[in-house]
Amino acid sequence: MDAYKLVIIGSGPAAYTAGIYAGRANLFPLTFEGFYSGPSGGQLMTTTEVENYPGFPDGVMGPDLMMQFRAQAEKMGNKLLTEDVLSVDLSKHPFVVKGSKTTVEADAIIIATGATAKRLAIPGTRDGEFWQKGVTACAVCDGAAPIFRDKDLYVIGGGDSAVEEAIFLTKFGKKVFLVHRREELRASKVMAERALKHPKIEVLWNTVITEVKGDSVVRAVVIENLKTKEKSEREAGGVFFAVGHTPNTGFLGGQIAFEEDGYISVKPGTSYTSVEGVFAGGDVQDRVYRQAVTAAGSGCIAALDAERWLSHKGMI
Questions:
Q1: What was the pLDDT predicted at 38?
Q2: Global pTM?
Q3: Domain 2-116+245-312 superfamily per CATH
Q4: Active-site residue flag, 142
């Protein structure tokens, strides 16, 4: 069984940035990029133009940005394996990381497997339909795109995140409709009041979207009132899911501490998890910001923390 000072699990901005910093520190990390668990490069691989990543004033396509991250990590000495991690054994040291084909030992591990945005099974919103062609799950990431400007926009959800996304979208859309299947919002009282008082937000109570229509991009939504069963088709320029995220942590088998909502718990201001020698970066531990640039920053933190821990333990 091969042994590594550092194994990185993941392939988005956090994982590749961790690999860049760890590589420059001569740790020669092994990175499990994943395969069936999702595309190498994380959520940005299904994103079109990214306008808010520093250094790209004209924007950059999400897959192109991730391929540059990946190439830089590889140049810095990362060994990249395009396979999933099935399990890890954190009960002994060195840790054991079992991939779909490869099993290795690791003195330290960085977990940067991200989180998957929850989507509802609405016709027209799926991959190969209008996903990333007017349907998205991140208003802050995508809302400023020209496709959404001065259009009627629909946000699905009723919690704080949905309200925050709706308010953000009022900067760009003509009007924002908050689609909620219940009679009252699940958001905090303060956030709910902001939505209800905002002149550009209208809450559609007891309502669901049953279909999204369009040509090359979203053009309309079909909505249904759950009480009256009345359906109607309305013009729309975009649909935004705001129904939560699921951190990708199943392979950990509950061996580290998690927050109540499933995100990995880290010591504030660091990437240290509850298991010594295991670090976490990116959306797998970030329920608040979930941006490419913040994920990259936390990947840097994880690499620096891992390097210092290994040095302190006399392993490098």
A1: 54
A2: 0.80
A3: FAD/NAD(P)-binding domain (3.50.50.60)
A4: yes
